[in-house]
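Typical record was shown:
=====
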Amino acid sequence: MLTRLPQADGPAYPLAKLPPAKYAPPTMSEHLYTYIDPPNARHIERIIDTLRGHGVIAMPAGSNWVFAADPTSKKALTRMQRLRPDRPTDRPFSLLCANIAMANTMAAVDSRLYKLLKRVWPGAYTILLPAGRQLPRILATKRKVVGVRVPDSPLALHIAEAFGGPILISSVPEQADGSHFTLGFEVMESFGHGLDMVVDLGEPLSGEETTVLDLSEGELDIIRQGAGPTDHLL
């Protein structure tokens, strides 16, 4: 039986329910170059306004680039699905969280899982966890599992913190030749037509996808070996 953890290591993060801005499909996406030390407050505000207005952005998330949107927006979900036509429609997207406390609002995390999550987050891992009661319907699956990331990316974590809740994400797919997208201008050239914004630190990423760990049944199961090492977990 799973025991819900108290929100002791951070604030509660209900999904943002602020009234969205009026949305109109982008005619041309914005390529926003920003920085993180310290974060540019005006840039962060524009990013959050875009997400809350049913917008879809691309941003760096540690090892790779991701598409990101408001998890409560059906419009944004539809647009993300159009950016990933190869992805099965019944396969839910993951959530990006700022910390374990935020992840605990969407997933059922007991004390044993908490200790393991502390060992891998922030890092290049997507963790499959038992879904919590607050998980939006558009992310629900028959297995009652949700994929969660807390990446080793100060920018992504700051955006999630400023948004006030988990952010819907999907990895940017490989290029036609099988290579990874590493730079923001590459993402802009290939997907700018379907995005509102590309958030860019001007730094290349490895492009390697995360390691996927399934903890939904209580035992560790390595689904995909990616950028996150697993030797210390076995």
Remarks:
- The CA atoms of residues 34 and 43 lie 7 Å apart.
- The chain is about 25% helix and 20% strand.
- The first strand starts at residue 30 and ends at 33.
